[in-house]
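Sample A.
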Amino acid sequence: MRLVRERFGFLTLIHSMRAFLKLVKSGQGEASIRRWVDEMQHYLPAASMDVSIKQKLLKESIDRDIAPALMMAAAGGKFFVAVRLPHAWRRFLKSKGVRLHPVSLALWPVEVLQRFRQGLRTYRTLMANRQEPEIVPHAVLYGIHDTSFTATLAGKEAQDFLSWSRAFFSLPKEWVVPFSGRILPPTSRTAVTPLPFPGLSFSACAEFSRAAKKEILRALMGICAGRWQRAYMLSDRIEAAYAAQVPREHLAKIYAFTNAAYIYRPLWTYEVERRGAEVAMCFYAMNTFDMRLAAGGDIGYAPGYAAMTWPVIYTQHENHREFLKGVVEAKTDIRVCGLMPYEDNGASADLSGKVKILYLDVQPFRPAFMAGIGRPCHIYTEDVSERTFREVCGAAGKAGAALYIKPKRFVGNRLSIPYRRMLEDAEKAGLARIVDSGISARRLCAVADIVLCQPFTSAALFAAEAGKPVAYYDAPGLFTKSQPASYGVPVLRGYTELEQWIAEAMHVSEAAA
C-alpha cells in the first residue's frame, strides 16, 4: 500500500490494479504511453528547457509519475493522481484526461528544493575528493552493476560486458575500470553520484570551488525568482564544473555507458568529449522494435529514444542500427559492433543429456509491481508465461530431451509467485532443470543442442551465432510470423508447430553431431 501511495499519490491499490488489468486486456497501454512520452519531449518551452533537463526529467519521471498517470487516464479512471512534475507537463497530463490532485502544485517545489540540497552535498563531496590517479584508465565502463563482471575481474573465462569491451576496444586488462555509477534520487543518503575522476590539485580545486559557488548562487537566485531549472540540475552542473578542472592526462580515452539509462546523458560527458575523450553508449538490448500483433496493430518500444544525444552508439545488428536511426533525433554516429554479452558470473555451463534443449525464459513480474510503475506489459504476463512454459516442458518431455530453463535475469521478489511455484514444482518432478540466471546466455547457447526463447529476447541471436537451431515460441499466437523484431529467427505459433519444429531441430542436431 505504501508503494502504491508513493507512486500514485492518493490512489488505492484496487484502483491502480483495475486500471492496470484493463490496459493489459486491451493491449494498448504500452503503445499509448510511448506516444504520449515522445510527445511530452516537445511540450516544454524551448527557451527555458535545454535538452539535458528534458532527458533527466524523462529518465526519472517515466516510471515514477508519467506512466502511472497516463495509465490511469487511458484506463478511464475517475480518480486523482499526485505527480512531481513541472507546470508544463502537468498541463500536458491534464490535456490527456488525467485528473491531478491539488497537492501536485506543492510536490514540484519540494522536489526542486531537494535537488538543490543534493547539489550542495555533491559540492561538499567533490571538494573532499583526494584520490590519487594511480594509473590513468584507457576506458571507463559506466553504469554496469558489480554482479555483471565479477568473473572477469577474478580472471575467469567469461562472456560479459567487461570482457567484451576489452576485446572490442583492444584495451589492456589493467587499464579498464568498471564503474557502477547511477543517477541518485534527491533523497538518497549517498552524498553524490559517483564520478570516475581523481582528486584535483590545489589550484584546480580552488577554480572548481569558484565555479561551483557561482552555480549554487545562480540556482538560489533562480529559486527566489520562481525559475527551477538551475536548482533542479545543480548537482549535474557541479559535476560538469569538476570535470572541467580534471587535467587532460587524467581523463580516460573512452567513457562507455550501457543502455540501462539510455535517455539521460550526464552533463560532465559533454565536457570530457570537448576535451578529446570518446563518449559512447553500448546498446546491448535489441527487443526494441514495434512488435506486430496477429490481431492487428503493434506493441510499442520503450519511450524516450528520441531524446538521446549520445555522440556514438554501438549496437549489435544492422536492423537495430536502422531502427535507432529512425527514432533518435540528434546527430549520432551509430555503429554495428556485433553481439554484445552483458552478465556472466563464471559458473559452470555444463549441460547433460542426449539432446539438450535450452529455454531462455524472460519470466513475468508480479502484476502489483508492474502496476506500481505504470507499465502494462502484454507479453510476459503470468498467463502467457505459464502457458508457454507448460507447453515447452511438455514438448521437450515428449521428444525425450533434457530441458534447461535459463531465467533472463535475477528478479528476486518481483517474480510472479504462481510462476515461481510452477518452476519449483517442475524441477522437483524432474521435468526441467533451472540454470543459474547469472551464467552468460552466450556460453549456454554454445553447449545446448536446441534453443527456444520467448518473443523477442535478443539472447536468441547468441544461439544463431553458435549455429544452433533456435526459435521464438509464441504459445498464444499473439504475433505475426514475419516482423523485424525477430531478426530472422523463426516464430512458432501454437503447440503443433512447436512439436514439429523440435522434431526437425533434433534431426538437424543429431546429423551435425
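Sample B, a different protein:
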Amino acid sequence: MSDELTQLVRQLREIAAAQGAAAASRVLDERATHLSAAQREEVALIAFGQGSQIGSVATGDLVQGNQSKGHVDIFGQLQGVAVAVNYGRIELSATRPHEEVRSLLEQWLQHCIQRLQRDHLVRLADQLMACPSLPRLPLAALPDFTALCLELHFWDVKHLQLLTTLDDLLDELGLLLPITWRELLELRTLLANVTLSEEELEYLYGHSRPARWWQRPQGCDAATTLRLMIQQLAAAQVQMPEAQHPLVDFVHRLMAEYAPQIETVTHALAQWTQQVATRLGLAPRQVPATPQPTLLIKLKLAPGVVQPSLSQPHTVEVVLHAWLLPEVQDPLVTSRLCTLKEVKDDLPRLVRQACQKLSPTLSMTDLPIEFLLPLELLPYDVDQWPIQTGMRRTRERPVGQIHPVMVRSLDRIENPQQDAQLFPRWQQRWQSLQTPQAHDILVTVDNLAAYQLHHIERDLRMHGHKSLLLLTALTTANLDDLLELLDLAIELGVPAAILTRQCCSDPTHVATTLREAIARRAIHELPHLIREQRLEAESPQHPGQNLTLLWDDPQRMLPEMLYHTDRMMSDK
C-alpha cells in the first residue's frame, strides 16, 4: 500500500476516534476519489471499521501491496508479506493444504481450550474451517481463542451468515463472550492511539481484574499489552447481577484516572461503556456519594476444615481478610491463615487501626463492624469478643456494646451461581425490609415444641415480603436445626435475622419484647437497636448478651469483584 494511502488510513482513524465513523466516511469520500468503490470500502474497514468494527492491521505498519480490486489485495495478504497485527510482527501466509490446517487447528484448540470435549472440539474445528480467512491466519502467533475469533470477525466480515453460525456454536459451547466481537473491536479502535506506560497499565489491570490470580498479560510493547488486557478482560463472565463487568470497569477507571491521555475519545468511550452496561443489564449499583465507613472482616474456613467446633476456637483454622470500607484498595489484612482464637485476639488491633483512619468528625461508636462468615460460623459470638476502651485506664468491653456488630453470609455472596434466582430473591426481600410501611415481615420461632422446618419454608416461599427471622427458641444447643434453618433462609433470600445463641427462660416473652422494640424504631436502625440490647445485658442470662444479628445488604459487595470464567479458571 502506498505511503499516501497509509497516511490517509492514519488520518481516518484519528477522525473516527474523535468525531465518529460518519465524519471519517465523509473525509474518505472527499480524498479517495481515485479509488474504486470496493477499494474505498476496504480502506474504510481498515481505518474505522464497517459498522464500527476494526481489524488487526496496525496503522503505520500497512504494507506495500497490489491495490487492485478485492479484499485480499488491499490487505496485502501475499505469501511472505509481513503485516503488523495486535500480537507483534507475524507472517500471513497464502492458503495452506486443508489437512495441514485442520491438524494444526485441532492441536491449537486443545491447547487453548483444555476443557473442551472431543466431539465439541471437532464441531468447533469444522465451523472454524468454514471461515475463508482461517487457512491464512498464523495460529501459532495468536495468544488465545479470543484473538482468533476477533481476527475471523474482522477478515471475514462480509460472510455474516458464517460468523452468525459460528457465534451460535460458541454460545452453545459456553465460549461466547459477554462482550460482543463488535463491541470489542470497536473498543480496540477507540484505544488504538491511546498512549499509556506499562506502569499505568499495571495499575488499571490490577484494579479491574476479576480475581487476584488472573495473570497480567504482557505484550512486546505497551500498546500490545493494552490490547491483550482488553481481550483477556472481555473473557470474564459476570457472576452476580448488578456487579460491573471488569472490562467496563477497566474503561471507567481509564477515563477517571487518565483523562488527558484519552481526551479525544472520552465521549466515545463513555457511550461505549453505557451501551455495553445497558445491554448486559449491569448498570452500576447506586452507591452513596459518601458511604459510611465500615470495618469488614471476612473469615473463610481454611482448606480441609469441614465441621468447625464453636466450643474450641483455637482448633478452627480460617483465612482472614479485613478492610475499612470504602478504602478497598488498602486492606488491613490480606489472606492471613490463623485460628478463630487468633482472630479474636487480633480484633482490638484491627478496630484500633480502623478507628485511626476515621475522620475526626466521626465518633468511634459510629463505626459498624461486619463479619462475613460461612454458615457454620454465623452463630458464633463475635459480638462478645473483647476490645479495649478507656483513656489512661484500659477496660475491656464486648465489641458489640461499643460498635454495631452484625454478621453476613459469605456463602450467599460467593456462590450465587448455584441458583440464578438467588440474588433477585435476596434483593426483593431486602427492599421489602426497607419499606417504611413494612408490616408482617417477621417470621418468629419462639416455641421449640411447635417448630417445623417445612412450615417455615412454606411461609417463606409463599410470602416474598417476609424478610426478618426472629429466632428465640432455636439456639446453639440445637445447632444442626439452627444451621439448617439459616441455610434455608439464605437460600430463599432472607436478608435479616435475630437469634439468641443461648437458651432463655421464656423464649416467647423475649420474642415479644424484641418485636415491640422493633416496632418502635425505623427498620434501618436495627443494628443500633441490637447494640442497645447488648448494652442492657448485665448478666450472662440477659438475652442481650447472646444476640446475633444477620444484616445482609445485597448491594454491599465484597471488595474483590466477583466474576468467574471456566477458561481462565483452567489456567489458575
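Observation for Sample B: Confidence is low (pLDDT under 50) at residues 49-92, 284-290, 561-572.
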